[in-house]
Amino acid sequence: MRTNRRGLPWVALMVSTVFAFLAFMGVQSGSGKVFGWFANMTAVAGLMSWFGIAVTYIRFYAGAKAQGLDRRTLPYYSNMQPYAAWYGAISCLIICFVCFFCQSMHRRL
User: Fold this and answer.
1) Within 10 Å of residue 92's Cβ, how many Cβ atoms?
2) Do the Cβ atoms of 58 and 68 come closer than 8 Å?
3) How many CB atoms lie within 10 A of CB 32?
4) Alpha carbon distance 34, 62 (integer Å)
5) CB 44 within 8 A of CB 99
6) pLDDT of the chain along its 109 residues, tens only?
């Protein structure tokens, strides 16, 4: 952790100060709009996390198949894999692109 010569963690202080400015959202009339932006960013970040999980499994499946590992010997096994992982990855990408398209079209109107 970075600190100054007195031991103050200035990086943590700056990050917490940035989040403290979010308290001023209630002062302006556009606070609902800003909250909507944060909600949309959080939703897309969650979708991208699920996309990463699906891609990780797809690559694990390919590696296990290349090494000749039988998935039935693993503690958890699903008959729907790798198709469910492909479905999840593609669905997350489509939803993210549709959200981006809807937001960009909404701004133009």
Assistant:
1) 21
2) no
3) 10
4) 42
5) yes
6) 677 778 888 888 888 888 777 766 666 666 677 777 778 888 888 999 999 999 999 999 999 999 999 888 888 888 898 999 999 999 999 998 888 887 777 665 5
CA dist 102 and 97 (Å) reads 9
Cis bond before residue 82 (omega within 30° of 0):
yes
Label residue 68 left, alpha or beta by phi (over 0 means left) and psi (-120 to 50 means alpha).
left
The pair of three-digit structure tokens given for residue 35, joined into one six-digit string: 């909250």
d(CA 89, CA 96): 11
Which is nearest to 42 in space by CA: 96, 93, 102?
Answer: 96
Considering Cα of 89, then 94, then 97, then 99, what sign does the dihedral take? negative
Look up residue 81 and give its two tokens. Answer: 């894999």
Domain ranges (residues) in the chain: 28-108
- The closest alpha carbon to 83, from 65, 58, 62, 59, belongs to 58
